[in-house]
């Protein structure tokens, strides 16, 4: 008997703000894997791409991607992402559960599909369900659909949770298929009217959420795994839209005056006087804003302080405005 897991929890849709229109995917285009070609494509889209978080007392930013010199970086990583695949303006990358995205999007994705535009990007995530041999589920699981063709993909599919040593701690079972092609689901799935269709190796489910909004999810079946994706939710095709800001490279260096030090690196900008629980930095033109956000119980943002820095055109000095309005001139060291 497998360990009981509330299957319906695997289909919980987290409360996030999604873009109303999905990206302009061009499935008819051939897939490019050549690193040089992908790099040349990315060179047209230099920028740092971020989401604006709104809360009661203001808003703050979270940078999800940086594109620079033909490379793509996740969050504030200094090492570029690898395993990139390009089709049209759609780029797919293996993020291997990079937690910098989970900080914002409440998901630890395995694969990200990014669509690039001149002043923004859109992305959606996919998760990988690992596979083990089929094992009869407990009495809380029932057969909810059968496709005989699915017998070729029989198995228990799960998302692993790892311990601090990198060993699997918990197998969170998501979908179970036996050799007769029966799909087993937790009893609660029938309460939301979940239905399934099959087209080749692509299994698709559809149901209505508590607000009677349609939810469509797909499961791409492979020999030893399933690639899972939310396709449609909240009455919209599912994707996140990120705004574009400039890169830091033209301003690299340390700017200081007395005890105040502003440090600009390729992946981040910081000020030594910021003491908040979370820091973010955005630059557009010569204007840099470093935000420090304070959280209640390490969860709810309650206060934001902004540090405003305006660089001179020759990048040798900067005017710094403290959160209290005091202005100080900083000199590049």
From TrEMBL:
Signal keyword on record: yes
Keywords: Signal
Signal peptide: 1-20
PROSITE patterns: PROKAR_LIPOPROTEIN
The name this protein goes by in its record: Lipoprotein
């Amino acid at each position: 008997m497998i360990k009981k897991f509330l299957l319906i929890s695997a289909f919980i849709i987290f409360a996030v703000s999604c873009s109303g229109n999905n990206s302009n995917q061009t499935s008819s285009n051939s897939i490019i894997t050549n690193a040089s070609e992908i790099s040349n494509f990315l060179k047209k889209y230099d920028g740092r791409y971020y989401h604006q978080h709104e809360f009661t007392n203001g808003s703050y930013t979270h940078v999800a991607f940086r594109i620079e010199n033909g490379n793509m970086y996740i969050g504030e990583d200094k090492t570029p992402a690898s395993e990139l695949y390009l089709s049209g303006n759609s780029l797919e990358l293996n993020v291997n559960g990079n937690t910098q995205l989970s900080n914002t999007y409440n998901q630890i994705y395995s694969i990200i599909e990014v669509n690039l535009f001149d002043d923004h990007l859109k992305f959606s995530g996919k998760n990988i369900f690992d596979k083990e041999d089929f094992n009869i589920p407990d009495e809380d699981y029932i057969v909810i659909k059968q496709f005989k063709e699915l017998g070729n993909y029989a198995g228990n599919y799960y998302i692993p949770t790892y311990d601090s040593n990198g060993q699997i701690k918990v197998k969170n079972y998501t979908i179970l298929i036996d050799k007769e092609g029966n799909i087993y689901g937790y009893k609660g799935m029938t309460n939301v009217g979940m239905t399934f269709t099959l087209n080749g190796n692509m299994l698709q489910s559809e149901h209505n959420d508590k607000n009677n909004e349609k939810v469509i999810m797909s499961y791409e079946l492979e020999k030893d795994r399933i690639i899972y994706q939310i396709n449609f939710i909240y009455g919209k095709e599912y994707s996140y839209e990120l705004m574009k800001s400039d890169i830091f490279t033209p301003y690299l260096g340390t700017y200081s005056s007395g005890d105040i030090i502003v440090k600009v690196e390729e992946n981040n900008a910081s000020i030594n006087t910021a003491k908040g629980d979370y820091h973010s930095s955005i630059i557009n033109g010569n204007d840099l804003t470093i935000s420090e956000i304070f959280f209640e119980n390490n969860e709810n943002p309650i206060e934001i302080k902004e540090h405003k820095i305006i660089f001179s055109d020759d990048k040798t000095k900067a005017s710094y405005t403290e959160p209290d309005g005091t202005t100080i001139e900083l000199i590049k060291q």
